[in-house]
Amino acid sequence: MIRAALGARLRACAEAGARIVERDWPALLVGAICIGLAASVWVRPPWLLVAGVTCVALVAALAASDTRLALAGVALLAAGLWWGALRGDALDRSYLAERIGETASAQVVVTGPARTTPFAIRVPAEIRRFGTTRFRERVLLELPPERAPPQGTVLELRARPVAPRGPGTGFDERGWLARRGVHVVLRGEGMRIVGRRGGIGGVADRLRAHVESTLARGTTGERRALLAGIVLGEDAGIDEAQRDAFEASGLMHLLAVSGQNMAITAIGVVTIARVVGIGRLVGEGVAILVVLSYALAVGWQPSVVRAAVAGVLASLAWIVARPRDRWHALAVGALVLLCWMPASALEPGFQLSFAAVAAIFVVLPRVGGVPDAYPVPRGLWDVIVVAVACGVVTAPIVWLHFGAIALWTVPANVAAEPAMPPLIGLSLAAAVIEPVLPGAAAALAWLAGWCAAWIAFVADVVSAWPSAQLHTPVALAAVLTIAATVWFLRRLPRYRRRGAALGVVSVALALAAAACAFQPAPAWVPPSGLRLTVLDVGQGDAILVEAPGAAVLVDQGPPEADVAGQLRRLGLRSLTAIVLTHPQRDHIGGAANVIRRLRVATILDPELAVRGREYDDALAAARERGVPVVEVRAGDTFRLGRLHLEVLWPDDAGLPGEDPNLNATVIHAHFGETDALLTADAESDVTRRLSLGPVEILKVAHHGSEDPGLPDLLRGLRPRVAAISVGEGNDYDHPRPGTIAALDAVPGLTTVRTDLDGRIVIESDGRAIMLRSER
Questions:
Q1: Strands 404-406 and 530-534, how do they pair?
Q2: 631 pairs with which residues across the strands?
Q3: I need a surface site. Which of 74, 170, 308, 669 has the fewest CB within 10 A?
C-alpha cells in the first residue's frame, strides 16, 4: 500500500512537472540563463563549473521527456555564466582605484539625486576626465556641504579619489558600492557647473526635475519629502524618526518605487483612454510610453526595471493579440537586471522585489476568492491575502539582511495601501497637466500630499505598537514557525487548506497580541556595575559610559557612523548626558542626530572659543528638543547614580585660532575601585599638566597618534586596559608604531582597538575587569 501510494504521488508530481514544462517553457529557459548570471558572482572564471554542469545535465537530459529543452536550458545556463563573468570583470576594472590619494582636476557628470547632510554632499556620478586622461567610470562624489548639484549637471572640480570605508563602522560601504560597479569615493572641491548631459540620460533628468518641481508646488515639509520618496524613490529628505517608523511598521517598501506604482500608472492610462473614447489600442501604446517615461524619471532600481518590463510586455501582448504570461514577464525582468549588473542578485531590493511578486503570483489565484462564510469585500480580501503572502515570503530575507521582522506589517499595509492609487494617480496627473494648468496641478499635488500624510500616520501609529519589530533570536523563531506552518498547510487536502489557513492566521494574531507584553522592543539592560562601551565608529570617538542610574555618551563619532542608530539597535532610548569634548567632526559629527533620535537629559559642553558646523548643528538640535546645555570646566564633578565623573580639562575656553585638541575635554570616571581616564584628543602635552593617579582603563588619546610623552604617562597611570578608537585603513596611519610600542612595553596591559576588534565592551563590578569585543 505504501509503495502504491508513493508511486501515485511520484506520477502526480511527474505529470505536474510535465504540465509546467509544457506551459512555462519560455520562463524556464529565461530562468536558466538568470541562474547562470547570478552564479557568476561567485564563480569566476566559470569554465570548470560550466563543464561540470554541462556533463551532469547531459546525463539527466538522456532521461528527460524533452531532451532539446534540457539541452537548451544547459546551454543558456552556461551562456549566463559566461556573460556574467565578462560583465563582472568589466565592472571590477577601475582606473581611479590605482590613483588613490592623488589630486587632479576632473570632469564629472551627476547621475543621481544628492544626499545632503550638514557635513557633506554625496551623489552618484560618472567621471569623464581625471587630469589629462579621459575615461568613464562610476564614482560616489563627495562634496563640501554647500549647494547640491542638480542631477544631470556636468561639473569641473579638483578631485581626490579615496577608498570607500570597510565594514568597521557597521556598514560595509566598500561592498555596497562594489555591487554597483563603484570602487572609489571621489572627494571634490571648487565645484563649477559647466553644462548638462544629453541623450537619454538628459531626458531622464528633465523628467525627474519636472515631477519634483510639480510635487513641490502643492506640498511642503514632511508631505513633500514623503511624496518624493513614494513617487520617485527619493527618501533623502525623510528624517530618521519617520524612516524608523516606516521600517518598524513594515511599510518601508512604499518608499521604494515598486511594481505597484507601475501597475497603478498603466491601469490608469488604459482606463482614461477607454473613458475618453480613444480606444484600447491607443491606450496600451500610451501606457507603454508613460511606463517607460516613469521608469526613466525614477532611475535604475530592481523593482522599477522589473515592473517596467512587466508592464511593457503586458501591453505588447494585448497589442499583438498574444496571451499574457506573468511568469514570463517576471523572468525577463530578472534577465534585464542581471545582464546589466549580475551582482544585483545579492541586493536586498532585488531579492525582496522578486520574492514578493512570485508570492503574489502563487498565492492570489489559489485563495483570491472570498470565503462564503466571511462577509469581506473582495478588494479588502485581496489586499489582506497579498499582505500576508508578501509578509510570509519576505520575512526570511528581511531577517537575514536586517536581523529584524516587522510584526504588524499586515494591518499596517491593509490600512496604508488604499491611499497608494490616489497618491500615485494624483501626483502623475499633476505632472502631466502642470505645463498648461499650473494651478490645478498644485491642487492635485496638495491632495496627493494628504494621501502621503495618511500613510505616515499609519506608520507612526503601528510602529508605536508593542513589539513592532522582532529582533534576533525572536525573529529567527518567527521565521522557523512560518516555515513549519507552510509545510503543515501543504500537507492538508486542498479543500481543507483555506479553513486551516484562516484558523492559523487567527491563532497567530491572538498569540501575537498576547505576547506583546512579554516581547517588548529591544530594551536597554541596565548594568549591574560599570560598563564602558567603545563604539566602532571608524576614525572617531564615541564612548558610552554606563552604571546603575546613569548612561553618559562621551563624544558621538562622525555622522556616517550613525551612533544614534547603533545605540537604538542596542536598545538604548535615553541618555543621562552627552559630552561634546571638542568641536571636531570625528568626535561630535553625530551629536545632532543623537539629540534628535534619543531622549537626552543634559549636554555637557566646554564651550570652547573654537566652533564649527557640527557644533552649531548640535546646539540647534538641543534648542529644538529643549535639552539644557551645561558649561563644564576643570574641577567640575557630577554624581550620576553610582557613577562619579570629574572634568580634568579644559580650564578655559582657549583661543579662536587654537588647535581644539589642546582644549579637548578630559574626564575621569570613577566606579567603586575602578577608574577610567577618557582623554578624547588631548595628548600628553595636555595630560602631563594634570594631577593624575593610577587608573584601570585608559582611552588612548587621538586615535593612537604619535605622542612622545606617552611612555612617561603610562608609567604614572599603570592601566590594565588601553582602548584605541580608530578607523580601519585610515589616512593617518593611526595607531602609530611608536604608540603601539609604548603600550606593548607596559607589563600586564591589554590593548584593544576598534579597527581590529570592533565594538569593545569593558565591564567592572568595581574591582575585577571583564573585557570582550563584538566584531
A1: unpaired
A2: 605
A3: 170
